Fold:
Amino acid sequence: MRSDGQHDRSFVRTFFTSPAAVEGEADSAKMLRRAVQLRGMRAPDVWVPDNEDATAPSMRDDGIENIVDVVAEHGESFPGEIHPRIVWHRDRPDTRYQGLQQMLYIADPERGAIEYIDGFVVPEVGDIDDWKKADECLTIIESEYGLDEGRLSMSVIVESGQAELALADLRDEIGKPTNNLERLSLLVDGEVDYTKDMRAITPTGELPAWPELRHNTSRSASANGLIAIDGPYDDIRDIDGYHERMTANQAKGMLGIWALTPEQVIEANAAPLPPKTGTWLIDVNGHAVELNAEDDVQVYDGEQLSLEKIESDRYRLGVGSNERTVCDDELHEELLQLTDYVPSLNDIVDSMETFEEATEAGTGAIAMDNSTTLSIDGIEVTISDERMWDEATYQASQTPISLFQDVYENRPDQREELREMYGEHVVKRAMNVG
Amino acid sequence: MRSDGQHDRSFVRTFFTSPAAVEGEADSAKMLRRAVQLRGMRAPDVWVPDNEDATAPSMRDDGIENIVDVVAEHGESFPGEIHPRIVWHRDRPDTRYQGLQQMLYIADPERGAIEYIDGFVVPEVGDIDDWKKADECLTIIESEYGLDEGRLSMSVIVESGQAELALADLRDEIGKPTNNLERLSLLVDGEVDYTKDMRAITPTGELPAWPELRHNTSRSASANGLIAIDGPYDDIRDIDGYHERMTANQAKGMLGIWALTPEQVIEANAAPLPPKTGTWLIDVNGHAVELNAEDDVQVYDGEQLSLEKIESDRYRLGVGSNERTVCDDELHEELLQLTDYVPSLNDIVDSMETFEEATEAGTGAIAMDNSTTLSIDGIEVTISDERMWDEATYQASQTPISLFQDVYENRPDQREELREMYGEHVVKRAMNVG
Amino acid sequence: MRSDGQHDRSFVRTFFTSPAAVEGEADSAKMLRRAVQLRGMRAPDVWVPDNEDATAPSMRDDGIENIVDVVAEHGESFPGEIHPRIVWHRDRPDTRYQGLQQMLYIADPERGAIEYIDGFVVPEVGDIDDWKKADECLTIIESEYGLDEGRLSMSVIVESGQAELALADLRDEIGKPTNNLERLSLLVDGEVDYTKDMRAITPTGELPAWPELRHNTSRSASANGLIAIDGPYDDIRDIDGYHERMTANQAKGMLGIWALTPEQVIEANAAPLPPKTGTWLIDVNGHAVELNAEDDVQVYDGEQLSLEKIESDRYRLGVGSNERTVCDDELHEELLQLTDYVPSLNDIVDSMETFEEATEAGTGAIAMDNSTTLSIDGIEVTISDERMWDEATYQASQTPISLFQDVYENRPDQREELREMYGEHVVKRAMNVG
Structure:
């Protein structure tokens, strides 16, 4: 895309890499051609023609040409941003010089690709002075080709301890007159190389979870107005694992993730959006179990909870291997503590509208009521919870809505799927709230 | 308090906010008046008349006047420190200017409140240069009203990625001749706004636990001689949850927490103090279960552990679904590994006195013995453990005692409750040890 | 060792401290004499005659003399590096001056110890300016005794919030012309004093796990080319706990650990090396359970998994309390997700050799196959998994091999034990791969 719908996205859900040149194929640009034609939920927010790790070193000259050809031909109609990845290494000046040459080639306006390209992805960066070297390459390219200073964005792969440390230095350096680091766009974790750089070992060879790295990346994105993206999830068949990782990332403020396949793109495009329908959860020995909605009743049909009425206002409640006798009120209170609700898009919009009306009428905080009927072993119990909403709650709940609005505005190719998923009416209200 | 009992507390357990003005009440200062009259375990170590988020924007002019009135009238006899919270925002100069005006109003000696006020709480700070702006406002106020430079303390709410980064910069900036950042007192996390600033999403809207933020806050407090306080725990009926949070915080060195109600104040005042009586725990599938003391025997009466004597020096020990046959020695060793002891105030004082005597006699390390009799399925087993104490163990165990001493000295209004709780004798010894 | 086999180790598995002088013994240097004669897997990579916390203050003058005597006599033949720990404290100039004097005494070439000493361990450091003070002491000593600048390495104990912050500053300071911080060698966590400095409290007095401290130490080691070491594990009888700690550390890139006894040295020397034989694991309710290899079949004989054939291509699979009916393919897929493989040294060498051949032949990524037969309730199921290996996977898997090679090269005294453990053939191949 670009040229110059300009679209500076506030959110990026998906960072999809494609090999720039594959060996032994009639058309070495096959993967690029396939990717650039993706649309809708199969198309990523950011597409990365990858002339680094995904492309064999011997194929990288072809890769650069393929990128230029495919982007020049199809870039205009691609619905997401385009950020090719070139080679770079904090410890190797020759690799950095190759990276400069690759970018010079791709960015040459004569070749017709640059107008659809948003920026470049720079891997293997080191400390902040190394980031400045890459920034300087982009400044030179802009100057050489008469592009506006800052026209090309720069995204980095954080895959070394040095780069992780640079995340904390960034805010002191961005905005200095001798660099153009304001061009920074995505901060992307690269856990495979990071694991190597940290010299970590796990018994099975599985990657460590690196929670601190992800926190520090997300924090730097927050402090500098950038966007945090998690690295690749290798086990492409393990959709549940991919989802769990995204849920954990979202709780860190890292709303985007790498995708290796169009199937992962679909999952990762949908994951940070609120669900179509709300769900009740119940905590069973520390695990959240989803209840089955039957009409308006939420049914628990596992075997870890038990409930029996032993006389009027006396129940026997079993949770795991613990049993206790409780009265009506205690039962209500106990179940309230055990349950939780995952709101739908519609629910969030409802609450926000209600809060907005209340503040317009001069009230700063209101109680939102949430009630349902649970059924355990055939006994129905109605629980009802109140949650106070103030300005801060309101603003915190706004993140998924802002993301939804950002997607809807910047990805016209996904609108129909979103309207089908949520219904026309909810989508319209979601676009007007906040 | 203050004026000038001066009391620079080394520890702060409780940070209790009260709305400065509530709408629709005959007396908009009702909440302040109620709070300022709290005493004993219901009164916090730090009381925060809150003219920011807890008070509707339309009521904040009233709020400032209420703070001045209530503190001028009752401040002298309030047993804790008083730190009003004013408005501030890293991104909004107009809000910062309002903050300055609010502080100028409150601090005016003519109004009679300032002599009881220890300092101000500044919310929504950004990076360290923003902290300096707030510090400069306080310097101006001190200069304007002829107060000693540094007389007013400054506490900040860490509720942005920028502020979290500033925690690591603080030690390089504090002590520079161009600022008075030595006035810093509390570093308080604010997880609601932090979650918004980090753009984090959780399915149920629950706040993420943010372990790294809490670590970084505690670390900065440690490195700069300040005090770390965790943010509000919203679910005010969930006392167990509040306790779990405090236990987790204490293991991070974050000994204080926000309190929203006098009930939370009671809990949070008591939580970091050692218990009156010691307790034995046994690990059952990764969960620590408290044993019931019957006379001198610690009885396990759950169903996850089983013990049977099958012949002389042969037992069958079941832990969860695992069973194994063990001899006497193995049984002892196994149970020793599974059990743990939570010492009482008395126990800690005992150990410290013993160690102090030993070092006076020239011994650098001594073995502390701890033994008890367990009863499982009616079979009694006596276990006995030794732990080496050296200078480092001694000093690490001193933290709860130092906290106890700090409380006892600075909070005369809590002495009677403490003596009732622990007994006169233990309290006296605890005040003399260390 | 040293003098001047020089051996700059890339990896350090074990950091073994011995009291420099014990009271009440005929020979106060007894512990030193015993330690310096350790060989093979009982001897540490780094040996630390400890004249700080392990030695009573009143014995430290003796300690210094003992260190000189024992190292001068036995140092030449000791197979690991020798790094005495002296006294130091960020807050006490008198202690720092004592530290300087202790080092001056030990390093005096007249006394004959220094040629076998690699460097010094400096405890209780504060922020980076305090590290520079210790570095300056070493520079003075080198100058005084005509040693090359940088000849003496410096290792620090990170046991304060200030020192943890310094870890992030190090890369900006190392290499400045006014210091010799390039002499830094080990970054060692000291959790007992760190816990005190952070003022953390746990109910049982157990040390907190401090995951962020360990991450930050490991990250700084990675960013500055240093080596990260975890602190002491006090419960010396709890070998399982020590192992779990090391496994967690290794996943953070912290491959070395403190050892308090020769038994801990053996464990910690072996822990980061790949196992002799591979093992299959199966995930049972979140716990990895090792399967028993009987011939080529991996047998599960616990009670948490069940498998029953109910008709052709129909199985009932039970995992914990969940049961479901699955067809052949689903069963295969399900079991594949539940299982994991811990490769042996031989397996890792195999995979690396295969990958090296493939890249020589021009292929950038190959699929490694891994298959086995599982047996659950007597039913055998063959599963087979493919994992893609590219350059990054290859390099990440290299860490344990590089460590193995480093050990084999620098510790001739362990070669025989390694050959006995793994077999001559595998050892030879492991030394040639990578």
